[in-house]
Design goal:
Blueprint (H helix, E strand, L loop, with lengths): L4 H15 L21 H15 L5 H4 L5 H10 L5
Helix pairs in contact: 1-2, 1-4
Length: about 80
């Protein structure tokens, strides 16, 4: 089943809060980057990997570089879903 961007954002947000448990949920907004939220490079990888796993997606690593914020990550994950 293909998810909409809002549903994908909920998955990403849940994983941000799993990796960065000291964040308040209302701090995790689409326009913010993981770095803005205090995530180091290992944290950022974990958020992406957990999200890919939860969404059962396979995205080439090169496509993940240069994302500016959570909205761009959500857009990328949305585009990599299989049509259905």
């Amino acid at each position: 089943m293909r998810l909409d961007k809002e549903a994908i954002f909920k998955v990403v947000k849940a994983n941000v809060l799993k990796v960065l448990p000291d964040l308040a949920p209302d701090e995790v907004k689409a326009e913010r980057s993981l770095a803005d939220l205090g995530a180091n490079s290992v944290d950022r990888v974990e958020v992406v990997m957990y999200s890919l796993e939860d969404l059962e997606l396979n995205v080439p690593t090169a496509r993940l570089h240069g994302l500016q914020n959570l909205a761009e990550l959500v857009d990328l994950l949305y585009r990599h879903q299989t049509p259905g």
